[in-house]
Design a protein that fits this description.
The chain has three domains: 117 residues, Acyl-CoA dehydrogenase/oxidase, N-terminal domain (Butyryl-Coa Dehydrogenase, subunit A, domain 1, Orthogonal Bundle), CATH 1.10.540.10; 111 residues, Butyryl-CoA Dehydrogenase, subunit A, domain 2 (Beta Barrel); 148 residues, Butyryl-CoA Dehydrogenase, subunit A, domain 3 (Up-down Bundle), CATH 1.20.140.10. 48% of the residues lie in helices and 15% in strands. The longest helix is centred in the middle third of the chain and has 37 residues. With 388 residues, it is α+β, with helices and mostly antiparallel strands. α4 runs parallel beside α7 and α9 packs antiparallel against α10. The mean pLDDT is 96. The strands form three sheets. Strands 2-3-7-6 form a four-stranded antiparallel β-sheet, with no helix packed on it. The protein contains eleven helices and nine strands. It starts with 12 loop residues before the first helix and ends in a 6-residue tail after the last helix.
Length: 388
């Protein structure tokens, strides 16, 4: 029987075997604790350590720095297996983004210092971009990193930071030259343990993603070694962020695809089992037509994303094509979960049904990683360059 979650052009037998191990790991270690972590609003640190020991956290990091040396497609397998169980609470996607900032941008010395601890789960990674007054407009960040001898002094605040409560390693987007606009932005790595002046705010309550710790972070004269400037030159942070965003947005798109598949398959099971007016819900023409629309959109999105995955591997994936994928996939995800919840009837509104969690979790997909309005703007700006 075909496995819809791993039915992609780039999937090999090695990917399938890897997916089997991820599925067992989530079944054994995540699912028994799901309800407790939902109530606590955070995934236990011990689970991260186990994931590190399994090689999941560093799957696509180089072997010389504690990883497995696999392609990023193996990370996508992890995210698809996570989607199979309708989870968005484990913040491994953000941890992976942090990992790849270091792989792509850090100096060899920085990689040697940081990657083994990120791969092992000793550190959970976070990236601090958003501020109380600044979302998608990263040029407007107000957090500063003032040079003082061999140190930077961080001051400012961040909000909506995924993994904020668990993070042992935070990439902070800060102004090293506040007068220089985008050219004054740098990425500073903060090792949180023992960092004086660093404070975690409350674990924010959210509409969805109840297991994911999302926090405010505060920096009050926090001293960081100048050797923690990511890369070897100040003022490169904005460009560094732009280089990595296509991978982040492709990742979010595959997560949207996986969530839509989960909603579709849950709804198939429900409509086949539930009866009304003497027949299955599935037997009503409206149900079949709605599910036909959902199935078609899922297949179309999968084909487009697989093409973009090939471009990523070839090093040709552009910002505008990743933006296309991000906005369309997350809009499709929203339509899908709404349709599928409707087909569940009153049961869909009950928290004990997975479609309810999928519905609540889907809404933020159109906001984070760059709002879908910004994604459309990125695509629109590229239109004048199109050949006719």
């Amino acid at each position: 029987m075909r496995d819809s979650f791993l039915n992609h052009d780039w999937i090999t037998d090695e990917h399938r075997a890897y997916g089997d191990s991820i599925r067992r790991f989530l079944s054994d270690e995540f699912q028994p604790n799901r309800a407790a972590w939902t109530a606590a609003g955070v995934v236990d640190r011990g689970f991260w350590i186990k994931a590190g020991a399994m090689g999941i956290l560093g799957a696509s990091a180089p072997e010389e720095w504690g990883g497995q040396g696999l392609s990023r497609s193996f990370d996508l397998v992890t995210f698809l297996e996570q989607a199979r169980i309708a989870d968005t609470g484990w913040g491994i996607s953000v941890h992976n983004i942090v990992l790849h900032y270091i792989v792509a941008l850090a100096t060899p010395d920085q990689k040697a210092r940081w990657l083994p601890r990120l791969c092992s789960g000793e550190w959970v990674g976070a990236i601090a971009m958003t501020e109380p007054g600044t979302g998608s407009d990263l040029q407007a960040v107000r957090t500063t990193a003032r040079a003082d001898g061999n140190e930077y002094v961080l001051n400012g605040s961040k909000t909506f930071i995924t993994n904020g409560q668990n993070a042992g390693f935070v990439i902070v987007v800060a102004k090293t030259d506040p007068a220089a606009g985008a050219r004054g932005i740098s990425l500073i790595a903060l090792e949180t343990e023992g960092a004086e002046g660093f404070q975690r705010g409350r674990n924010l309550e959210k509409l969805g993603m109840k297991r994911q710790d999302t926090s405010e972070l505060f920096f009050d004269e926090v001293r960081v070694p100048r050797a923690n400037l990511i890369g070897d030159e100040e003022g490169k942070g904005f460009g560094q962020l732009m280089i990595q965003l296509p991978w982040e947005r492709l990742m979010l798109s595959y997560m949207a695809l996986g969530a839509a598949r989960c909603a579709y398959e849950d709804t198939l099971r429900h409509t086949r089992a539930r009866r009304a007016f003497g027949q299955r819900i599935m037997d009503f023409q409206n149900t079949r037509f709605k599910l036909a629309e959902v199935k078609t959109e899922i297949e179309l999105l999968a084909a487009f994303l697989d093409r973009l995955m090939a471009e990523l591997e070839a090093g040709t994936l552009t910002a505008e094509r990743a933006a296309m994928a991000k906005w369309w996939s997350t809009e499709m995800q929203g339509r899908t979960v709404d349709t599928c919840l409707q087909l569940h009837g009153g049961y869909g509104y009950m928290s004990e049904y997975r479609i309810s969690e999928l519905y609540a979790d889907a809404r933020v997909q159109r906001i984070y990683g760059g709002t879908n309005e910004i994604m459309r703007e990125i695509v629109a700006r590229s239109i004048d360059r199109d050949e006719i």
